[in-house]
Write a sequence for this structure.
């Protein structure tokens, strides 16, 4: 079975499970390492970023953090770490419902024969810091709201601007997050910001593959746990012919895999573990996805030829 | 003749005394309202999320006896920390205050649950039944607040107030109709908004009454967790009883929203980004 076909199957199955699983009794808790949005009625699990904002705001900043509240937060954090350790960035490339929606936008663009836009390397390097800035934003704002130093409506600051909050609920018929909220200045500011980021994301996703992943703080969080993850993208530099296929097919325009001449571990910060580089590599064994030392999938001439034929 | 006049006077006196007593029974011991009110913010502690409530009653009122029980019904999505998905009934020990110090009841919750807090306050011949029904989102695993688990709710009165759980498992909001069922048809119901009398409504022939709390600017400008008490009170003079149910009402999630405004901002954002992409970005060379 081709890797991309397997990935698509997993993506659709994950989409159905995470978006509608709650209606059938699936409850994965609030430690899911991808955008499984709690604002989707009947979703199967909650994005860990929401839990993180809640725990930082309500668990950690209270003086009672010594108690069971902290244990509860730590239990979910441990579960999150375990899920990341086992599946790594497969959460991004294979499971994330918002990732699949981005792939749909790219498919529509390709269907109409519109070329993908490129983000200049220097700009992309600067934009890479945005996701870490968002992590700091998530860490700083909720405790301030809990302590009463800023308005209470700042309590879920990332959800307030995350385009997943407005786009994902649409698939469950929920349009409430496409509105401006005039309750007070803070809610109005957040609802306006949400719709602006949604507009930017919609256009960006159409013209650039996996546009939102450039800014996704979940990707940054998963990457910070890289030393714990067993899943690796491994390159055998001696087998590489330097054809550049890996760079051409990468949805994140990563150049490391193509340029690396010495190191075996080529999994960079932006890598989504989608495996497109592996299946398009014509050099047998030059690229492979490994779980610890276990080879899950390796490049081969036959696979690359089949992939090219289908493309 | 004298005897006849005496009998007549006595009859008039007795009749007037009887009328006065009947008036006293119907009007004189009209019950004073008692209802539950939330005190302070919810707090998270080692024992769970702590919710504090106090009964509100007229100054100088003294109670001979106070009984408090609460029924906890776990939410559909809650991890049942008490090990059961069925409603559980607990009795709270509440000390009768010797002085005028306020009565405070604390409920510890470690899960998502619907709490039906019931209090029976007796003062002489008068009895007040105060209820408070609210959703709780407990954040801890421990819930031992010293309450005694009992098998059945005390049969105080058949006509305690009930709410439709299916509709009410989420927070009641301004702008949404609250429907309450009672066993008392066609009775006058006092509605209090944060302690102030607002209006009088009547229950229908089946004892059901409904009220839609209007949107509140002070709630909208306050935070997401700001709430106010809406209290329904029923005076039953013939029983020398007063029934009340308090319901915490939060600001409406979508009471102040505009879809047209939102779509306009979205359209402006899409147009602006589209212009930026078309005018500024480069084409990718290889695809």
């Amino acid at each position: 079975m081709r890797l991309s076909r397997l990935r698509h199957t997993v993506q659709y199955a994950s989409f159905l499970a995470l978006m509608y699983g709650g209606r059938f009794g699936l409850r994965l808790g609030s430690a899911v390492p991808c955008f499984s949005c709690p604002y989707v009625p009947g979703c199967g699990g909650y994005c860990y970023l929401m839990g993180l904002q809640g725990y930082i705001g309500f668990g950690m900043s209270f003086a009672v953090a010594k108690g069971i509240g902290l244990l509860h937060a730590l239990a979910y954090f441990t579960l999150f770490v375990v899920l990341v350790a086992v599946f790594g960035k497969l959460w991004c490339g294979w499971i994330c419902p918002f990732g699949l929606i981005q792939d749909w936008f790219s498919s529509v663009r390709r269907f109409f024969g519109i070329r993908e836009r490129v983000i200049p390397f220097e700009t992309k390097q600067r934009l890479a810091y945005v996701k870490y800035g968002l992590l700091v934003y998530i860490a700083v704002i909720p405790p301030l709201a809990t302590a009463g130093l800023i308005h209470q409506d700042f309590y879920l600051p990332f959800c307030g601007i995350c385009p997943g909050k407005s786009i994902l609920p649409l698939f469950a018929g929920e349009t409430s997050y496409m509105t401006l909220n005039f309750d007070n200045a803070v809610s109005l500011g957040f609802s306006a910001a949400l719709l602006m980021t949604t507009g930017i994301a919609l256009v960006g996703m159409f013209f650039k593959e996996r546009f939102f992943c450039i800014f996704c703080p979940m990707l940054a969080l998963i990457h910070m746990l890289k030393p714990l993850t067993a899943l690796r993208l491994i390159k055998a530099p001696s087998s590489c012919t330097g054809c550049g296929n890996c760079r051409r097919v990468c949805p994140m325009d990563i150049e490391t895999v193509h340029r690396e001449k010495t190191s075996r571990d080529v999994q960079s910060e932006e890598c989504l573990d989608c495996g497109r580089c592996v299946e398009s590599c014509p050099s047998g064994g030059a690229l492979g996805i490994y779980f610890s030392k276990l080879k899950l999938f390796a490049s081969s001439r036959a696979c690359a030829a089949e992939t090219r034929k289908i493309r | 003749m004298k005897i006849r006049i005496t009998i007549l006077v006595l009859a008039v006196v007795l009749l007037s005394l009887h009328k006065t007593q009947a008036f006293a029974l119907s009007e004189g011991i009209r019950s004073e309202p008692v209802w539950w009110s939330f005190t302070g913010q919810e707090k998270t502690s080692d024992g769970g999320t702590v919710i504090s409530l106090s009964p509100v009653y007229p100054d100088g009122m003294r109670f001979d006896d106070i009984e408090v029980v609460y029924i906890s019904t776990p939410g559909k999505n809650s991890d049942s920390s008490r090990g059961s998905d069925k409603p559980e009934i607990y009795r709270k020990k509440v000390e009768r205050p010797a002085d005028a110090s306020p009565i405070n009841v604390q409920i510890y919750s470690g899960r998502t649950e619907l709490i039906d807090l019931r209090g029976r306050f007796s003062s002489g011949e008068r009895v007040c039944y105060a209820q408070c029904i609210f959703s709780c989102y407990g954040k801890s695993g421990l819930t031992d607040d010293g309450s005694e688990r009992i098998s059945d709710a005390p049969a105080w009165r058949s006509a305690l107030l009930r709410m439709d759980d299916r509709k009410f498992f989420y927070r009641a909001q301004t702008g949404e109709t609250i429907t309450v069922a009672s066993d008392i048809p066609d009775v006058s119901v006092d509605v209090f908004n944060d302690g102030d009398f607002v209006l009088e409504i009547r229950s229908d022939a089946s004892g059901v009454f409904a009220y839609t709390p209007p949107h509140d600017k002070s709630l909208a400008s306050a935070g997401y967790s700001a709430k106010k008490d809406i209290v329904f009170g029923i005076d039953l003079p013939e029983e020398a009883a007063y029934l009340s149910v308090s319901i915490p009402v939060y600001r409406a999630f979508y009471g102040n929203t505009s879809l047209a405004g939102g779509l306009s901002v979205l359209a402006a954002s899409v147009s602006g980004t589209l212009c930026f992409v078309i005018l500024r970005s480069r084409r990718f060379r290889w695809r």
